[in-house]
Design a protein that fits this description.
Number of strands of chain A: 5
Helix content of chain B: 40-55%
Strand order of the largest sheet of chain A: 2-3-4
Order of helices and strands of chain B: EHEHEHEEEHEHEHHEEEHEH
Structural class of chain B: alpha/beta
Largest interface: A-B, 42 and 47 residues
Distance between the termini of chain A: 60 Å
Strand content of chain A: 15-25%
Shape of chain B: globular
Helix content of chain A: 55-70%
Number of strands of chain B: 12
Strand content of chain B: 15-25%
Structural class of chain A: alpha+beta
Order of helices and strands of chain A: HHHHHHHEEHEEHHHE
Strand order of the largest sheet of chain B: 1-2-3-4-7-8-9-12
Radius of gyration of chain B: 18 Å
Distance between the termini of chain B: 31 Å
Oligomer: heterodimer
Amino acid sequence: MNLAQLQRELCEWIAADGMADQSGNSPRADAGLAVYRNNYCCQLTACLEETFPRTRAWLGDCAFHEAAERHIAVTRPAHWSLDAYPRQFPATLEKVYLNDPEIAELAWLESDLECAFVAADADPIQPGRLLTIDWDCAIIHFSPSLTVRRLTTNAPAIFSALSAGTSPPAVEPQPTDAAIIVWRQDYVSCFRLVDRQEADALRALGHGAAFAKMCAVLVAELGQDRGTRRAGAMLGQWISEGLVIDVTTE
Amino acid sequence: MTCAIPSFSGFGLGLRKQHYGEFLERQVAVDFVEVISENFMVDGGRPRDILRRVRERYPVALHGVSMSLGSADGLDRAYLERLRALVDEVDPLFVSDHLSWSRIDRFHANDLLPLPYTEEALDCVCANIALAHDVLGRAVLIENPSSYLAFDGSTMSEWQFIDAICARTGCGLLLDVNNVFVSASNHGFDALDYLAGLPAHHVRQIHLAGHSQGDGLLIDTHDQSVPEPVWQLYEQAIRLVGPVATMIERDDQIPPLAELLAELRTARLLASTRLAA
């Protein structure tokens, strides 16, 4: 057996709960293999516990660990950083708890906050820059920490209650097409609920659409006055929240 | 090949989250700190800011756990390039990782898995170290691992394997005294034979840590203070390698900083006594 074969076999043994052929191993070798297998499982479980404390509190220890065990059984780490491993856990929770969408949404929120915490640094745009911008052909650039995610439940309220150590509210559905944004201000990750119009605007601008195009969409939907006011209000809020890092022109 | 890495003979601690505030608010009595490289190989945010501020106050050594120097299918170049960016920013005393492997193909075990000590593995590790030196623009230190598994196919001892790596690549050695103690117990060799067989002139740094008793094996847990047998082995190591950077490594059950500094004072005392003898 060459080195690559040996390493593949050992990985298979570690990740597959010792299902590979163990015949011929000495008791001492089995004890050693068990240490590595135990390290693997404990490390991944600890990594999920550390990233999803509120999801764990909401689910309860037993259910959380059952879901973690299921996730670890089917999802092998594929990155040198353990920080990458938890990012797929909310997708597993979506499958496990099909009828309880607040669980995965709570986990997505925790995961997105973790990602924002270590996202690339970018200074908010200086207010003086705004005076010279030709808004008719402006392209807005957002903080690299920004994520926009669809929301169907009051998972953020549950998150906030669990963070504050207060009793979490009962699960409630959100208005259709609600969304949540997560980003980082200075060194603190934060989130805010947004409506469908703002989520659509953020997504379109994030994909490079011009600010004028966004205004046109809002005017078409709300009328000239309300559409223009809405566009201005959203832009003002994004700037005050440090979401806008640059504005260029087409 | 000789080791061109400059020596540094101070005493340091591993920088852990629980002690960030103290390291940043006052001048802690250490000559350097060691950080886990991967914790700071992120795009931005508070971790990078903390490292920048720590670096303004203390020399820093970068210690990695994910280079996977023993991977049969080579190193992850994207990982190396990200580490290079950190090296360029920090200008560390040392860049180190383990004589082990954690990845094959796309599977990352995120652990320090053992190698068979064969000519094939030697060629593989030496080629990987040469690539690391090339991408990082500097020589690395390799740390002797603690291990719980030995391979029947090994054709040389761990210290012979390390000696051959150092001779072929010019890398330095990070001698983990606790790992020698743990592996000697687990595999039944004499820790003093191990120390005597190492290329002492390649050692640039020493790790001291504690371990736990597992099911028939000692486990390198870093969750308790340095035990007496490891201190005794440290005295022997210092006698062989001379004054090199020494640090206490603690990763779990992190005590107050004062407790670690007291351990570090013990290391200073033992080293000065042994070196004066």
